[in-house]
Each structure stands twice: as C-alpha cells, then as structure tokens.
Amino acid sequence: MNRRRKNQTASNSPSTYKGGITIKSPEELEAMAKAGAIVGSALTLLKRSVEPGITTRELDNIAYKEILRCGAKPAFKGYQGFPGTICASVNEEIVHGIPGKRVLQEGDVIKMDCGATLDGFIGDAAVSVAVGGISQEAIDLMDATRTSLELGIQAAQPGNRIGDIGAAVQTYAEGKGYGVVREFVGHGIGRFLHEDPQVPNYGEPGKGQLLRAGMCIAIEPMLNIGDWHTRILDDQWTVVTQDGSLSSHFEHTIAITEEGPKILTGHS
After folding, report:
1. Residue 253 in contact with residue 123, Cβ under 8 Å?
2. Whole-structure pTM over 0.85, yes or no?
C-alpha cells in the first residue's frame, strides 16, 4: 500500500508512528521474512484466481482467508478506515481501489496490493494481473513496470541512496515513454505499515537517505501509459490516472543486507 509523498497528507498517523528510520536486528529481519512469505502466498493464490467473471470482493475474500490460514492478520483492513484486505484497482485505477461488486472483464488489468501482519511485523507487496487476453499495449506496460521494480531493487544496495532507487525506476520507465506516478511513493516498513524513509519512483542518483544494512523498504513503481498526474475518487481512497489512461503497479518488500537487497515477499 502506497504512501503519499511528503508535501501531501501522510498516510501514516503521527499518533501511531513517531518517525525515524528503523534498523532491524537479525531476529527482526527473520520475522519480516515470515510476514513477507505470507503476503507472497496470498498473492500467488490471487494471481491464480483472477479470471473474467470474478468480483473484486471475491478476490478480497480469497486473500483474507489465506492470510488467516497462515496465522496472520490483514495489514490493510481497518487501516485509516480502509475496508478491504487487499487494494483492488482496475485499469485506470492506480492504487487503493476498494474491493466490491465490480466484475472483472476480459481484457482488464487488475492491480492487487496485499499486506499481512505476523508477530508484530508487516509484509506488503503488489502485482498487476491480466484478466484473460489483454492488448499488447497493456502487456508492454506491465512488463515495463515489472522491470522497473527489478531495477529499483538492484539499486537498493548498502551505501547507495534513496535517489539511486528512484533514478533507476524513472530512467527506465520514462525511457520507455511511460508516466511515473509522483504523488504516491514507496516507504519504509516494519512494525508499522508506513515508516520512514519515503521511496519515490523518481529522483537523482546519489541524493537522499543513505541506505544501510538492516533497513526494510517497500519499492513500488506505478507507471501510466499516459500522463503521471493522478486524482482521487469520491470514495476518498481510489487513485486513478488523471487522463484516464491504463496504469500498472508492482511492489516488493525488501531487506537491505550487506550482501545486497533481499526480496521478502516473493510469489509464484
């Protein structure tokens, strides 16, 4: 689940998170990995469940049951009043779509963002999935978003900076002609869903917060076929492309280690 950038209202609450970057101990990293594995399991099940005719609420129920089966709790449900276990965003919806009665149609692209809390630690990841056959334009967008995430993760090396991650995503995505969403960004993660630092999908190499072993962050590129600007629907949650163009979103929670970045939310 995304965080709004700093010059907008933060999506975490000062009453529950006091700020500051947390460095996890080896035991805490192990706990983060366990929470991340549950998110990965839920996303694997969700990807296999997507088909024309299924509703976003049915997908939400699948994730809810899987997270509970694994002994965890949904991290999003009730967060800031969000009603779902997953964010289910379709086509021009970028993020934070509320699961409901919407029936998926052949050719849609659905973004599913999922979080789970286990033993006080949180995992958070997202995927974009084709509903049946989709256009080549949509396939190319999803491939570019997935690759931009991989490049962002590769840049998350100890000794690098937050700007290196954003620059890796932005350079690749804009080189392909896509708009890179700026109003919503990745974030630190641990005992709270949204911790410091913020992790934009744009930036300058060598700028921003120093990356240190023991940090855990969620990197989550959001690319649009059209312009990068966004707007929020009347439900006060669903974020859509301002120009109505198709959007794609992928996310992983990673740990920064001395050996390099480690993905904690893998799925198949």
Report:
1. yes
2. yes
